[in-house]
Amino acid sequence: MPFDEKPILTILYQDDYIVAVDKPAGLFVHRSYMDKDEIYFALQLVRDQVGKYVYPLHRLDRPTSGVLLFGLNEEVARLMGQVFIDKKIQKTYFALTRGHLLGAGEIDYPLKEKLDKLGDKNVSLDKAPQDAVTHYESLLTASLPIKVGKFDSVRYSLIKLLPTTGRRHQIRRHLAHLRHPILGDINYGDNKQNPFFIEHFGFKRLMLIAKKVVFIHPITNVQLTIEAEFDQQWLEVFDELSWETKIIKTLT
Asked: pLDDT tens per residue, the chain (252 residues)?
């Protein structure tokens, strides 16, 4: 999803050490070999908005929206890197999935590392699958009485997810493993449901948001909770599925 004009990112939190922004779907975090046709990147946009160099503390896939953290100096970046390594940060995601995924549970399913032909050309292809764990909870389900393929109705679930590891495409791959892929996932999704979703709702995107992060500030030692809001496209889906936003907010 190219941006026609320079985006202005919503700053969710900022102090002398850390800045958090709400990354829109379709925006790369930083330049890479895949982005030769791209103009805008979160790192440069945040740097321009705060007026100083910033250090990305983690990454979100291009199609994933939500909370994205940057450090404002090298030492904070180093300290926050250790926070991620030690798994002392809680990340909460929300996804809209195909079908009615009910209940709650833990997905403990090792994942083979996803490699890029160019960026990872020197990485061993024989590397063993890595441990990957995601906790999930089904919050809401809905159906639309519209026939798609062999099914007489379209069914959706709103799923809350807490990954305890950070493998590439982990949440997307784990939900696909459960046979409940995320709507709009062109890599692991449903090739009948995705076109229907685009036609019915009028937009094309991955329905996955990094909703909230909770961690202890590495300098002030104060617990921070930083949360992104559901954007207008999410709200349109909620309205179509008769899910009240005020109820969803109590579930986040």
From this structure: 567 788 899 999 999 999 999 999 999 998 765 556 667 899 999 999 999 999 999 999 999 999 999 999 999 999 999 999 999 999 999 999 999 999 999 999 999 987 665 455 555 567 889 999 999 999 999 999 999 988 899 999 999 999 999 999 999 999 999 999 999 999 999 999 999 999 999 999 999 999 999 999 999 999 999 999 999 999 999 999 999 988 888 887
Q: Are strands 65-71 and 208-216 parallel, antiparallel or unpaired?
A: parallel
Q: DSSP of 88-105, one letter per residue?
A: -EEEEEEEEEES---SEE
Largest CA distance in the chain: 56
Q: Can you read off the two tokens belonging to residue 14?
A: 């900022």
DSSP-derived secondary structure letter, 220: T
Please confirm, yes or no, whether 116 is among the known catalytic residues: no
Tell me which residue of 36, 83, 26, 81 sits closest to 55, measured CA to CA. Answer: 81
CA dist., res. 181 & res. 200, Å (int): 18
Contacts of 26 (CB under 8 A, 6+ apart): 1, 2, 3, 62, 63, 205
Q: Which position among 16, 22, 35, 61 bears the catalytic label?
A: 61
Whole-number Cα distances in Å, 246 to 65, 104, 213 = 21, 22, 20
Structure tokens at 95: 């996804």
